[in-house]
Amino acid sequence: MEDCIFCKIVDGKIPAARVYEDDKVISFLDIMPANKGHCLVVPKKHSQTLIEMNEDDLVATINAAKKIARALSLSFGNGSFNIVMNNGKEAGQVVNHAHIHLIPRFQKDRLRIKWSHLKYEGDEIKEYADKIRKFI
Ligand code: AMP
Ligand code: ZN
Q: Which of 27, 34, 60, 119 sees the fewest Cβ atoms within 10 Å?
């Protein structure tokens, strides 16, 4: 993918503060972090979203995320972190190369990853479950 910024990082064409690399995955610091230490975990093979990723890349990416989360916890002495993956424009995905955000959390940091809660009416919750199950 010629215009993909993360493919360029994978190919070493543009710099990044790398923290991890193996044959399938690379991880580097997000240049505009939600908290300092915020890492991106990126499968080397270009896929746009989670749904396009093959099983090998998925397994490698989530395993790498766990390794890096552990390293983040050890290096900052704090076991709290959020994993976020934005898939698609409406979900806030800006870089169209699948990636996982690993964001270390600190006491009294100002980051908010919370949403307001809606309610299902009547049988709606069952209808939603039925509809999703049909496509699995
Ligand atoms: P998303 O909204 O999930 O697509 O997030 C993309 C993330 O990539 C943002 O948090 C950006 O700060 C980050 N980002 C964009 N370009 C670079 C880059 N060259 N190096 C590191 N992080 C980047
Ligand atoms: Zn790419």
A: 119
Q: How far apart are the CA of 4 and the centre of ligand 2, in A?
A: 4
Structural domain containing residue 36: 5-133
**Ligand 2 center to 15 CA (angstroms):** 15
Give the span between the Cα atoms of 104 and 107, in whole angstroms.
Answer: 10
DSSP 21-70: E-SSEEEEE-SS-SSTT-EEEEESS--SSGGG--HHHHHHHHHHHHHHHH
Q: Give the model's confidence band at 1: pLDDT under 50 very low, under 70 low, under 90 confident, else very high.
A: confident
| Count of domains observed in the chain | 1
Is 46 one of the catalytic residues?
Answer: no
What confidence score (pLDDT) does residue 78 get?
83
Q: What is the mean pLDDT of the chain?
A: 96
- Ligand 1, atom 20: nearest CA belongs to which residue? 31
